[in-house]
Amino acid sequence: MRNHTSIMTHWLLRVVSAMLRISIILRQEEISMEPTQPTQPAPAAPSPQPAPTSSSNGLAITALVLGIVAFCIGWTGPFGLVVAIAAIVFGIIALVKKQSKGMGITGLILGGLALITALIVTMVGVAIFGGAAQVANQVSQERQAIDETKKDFAKGEVAEFGALTVKTTTFTQPWQPTDGFSTPKDGYEFVYVSLNIKNTNSEDSDVNPFDFKLNDNGVVSDHEIATTPTPLNSVQLKAGSAIDGDLVFQVKKGATNLKLQYTTYNTDALKEVNYTLGLN
């Protein structure tokens, strides 16, 4: 990046130097084309007169300086746009008032180039910020829609977890595993949940057992590894299709108000969403 910046600076200085040389050459040609005064006899002892003042080139110099500045900062957008317009205006006025043609034209050219650059940068910036504002507005609308969507479902209801509908077909508490080696911790017991999951979306949806957790009065836990008739596995569920799967969790003995919690990430709203379904 630094090499590119050095190259751009080098060529910028070469362009500015070339413009200044053109200005000097045009000025020299302008001076050489001025008519010379015919040789006349020396006048007799003229009375002292105040020194004549040369014609001012202030507007042309201002146009040149503003043109160089605008050419250097045209990429800044609106600020470069203002300086470029000022360079063009001063350049035109300088030419109308017949000040230095070289400096006036050079300032006019540099101002014009800077004006084009500043306009492009400004339009690109407006497009980028306008697009960002539109995206932010869409995200805000999606989040509002999610906030207004029902996310907590009672026992026996068919829950709508985003693109999935989830129904509890079996809930057993306590549940005793049949593999002979799975045992709960002291003071805990296993609960068994059998689910029917359907994809109501028009596109395929991913189903991952680790997205389903057990919420025990605010304490959230992952499912246990246990042998069940139809364990829920990670699958890509086709649009409109459904699957059955089992999950096993470990809770304190006699726990009540248990809820199945499903966590997903809404990419449109850029937000994590939690749904719950009552189990007992």
Spell out the blueprint of helices and strands:
Elements: H1 2-32, H2 58-73, H3 78-96, H4 101-148, E1 152-153, E2 159-161, E3 164-175, E4 188-199, E5 205-207, E6 212-216, E7 219-221, E8 235-237, E9 242-252, E10 258-266, E11 271-278
Parallel strand pairs: 1-11
Antiparallel strand pairs: 2-3, 3-4, 4-9, 5-8, 6-7, 6-10, 10-11
Helix pairs in contact: 1-4, 2-3, 2-4, 3-4
Please provide a written account of the structure.
The structure is a single chain. With 280 residues, the chain is an alpha+beta fold. The protein folds into two domains: 7-28 and 57-148, no CATH class; 152-278, Immunoglobulin-like (Sandwich). 41% of the residues lie in helices and 25% in strands. It has four helices and eleven strands; from the N terminus they run H-H-H-H-E-E-E-E-E-E-E-E-E-E-E. The protein has helices at 2-32, 58-73, 78-96, 101-148; strands at 152-153, 159-161, 164-175, 188-199, 205-207, 212-216, 219-221, 235-237, 242-252, 258-266, 271-278. A five-stranded mixed sheet has the order 1-11-10-6-7, with no helix packed on it. A hairpin with a 4-residue loop joins strand 10 (258-266) and strand 11. Helix 2 runs antiparallel to helix 3, helix 2 (58-73) packs parallel to helix 4 (101-148) and helix 3 runs antiparallel to helix 4 (101-148). The radius of gyration is 40 Å and the shape is rod-shaped.
